[in-house]
């Protein structure tokens, strides 16, 4: 599952560098962990669609600290359950016949399973001000019976489920080429 997604950053490097340069000029700096902003990478090869989501936990659950109260634990559980159902979050054409083959949703907020292989990015980290941050990462492998019907992607359900997310940087590699877009609740769709 990771082969296509791992290649995606290198393939789209010129696109990301151009956006990063624009973002840095517009906002004065570029920070990987930006509240309200998430990234979504998609790679389509044959009938296999791989999707990778990276987001600050704040966008998904509304906080970044370890869930200690019953309410926080319920919020984290509900978010994880929602993230484990990508076809309810990422709207793809039904005619494509996509089915989920694998999901992998990780965050320090979810705790650690003994069988998980966690990287440093899964841990809570502190910024220059000493404030704690945590991320949520999700990877999905889908098989689509008619991949030629994958013509659009809408994140409207994702924005409805996680209103703390105001922008999603999407990078896509498909047979038609590579493209990127910044999707928002007001403009949640893009063409493949």
TrEMBL record:
Coiled coil: none annotated. The keyword Signal applies. Pfam families: ZrgA. It comes from the Bacteria. Residues 1-20 form the signal peptide. Residues 112-132 are annotated as: Disordered. Residues 121-132 have a biased composition (Basic and acidic residues). Keywords: Signal. This is Zinc-binding protein. It comes from Pseudomonas pohangensis.
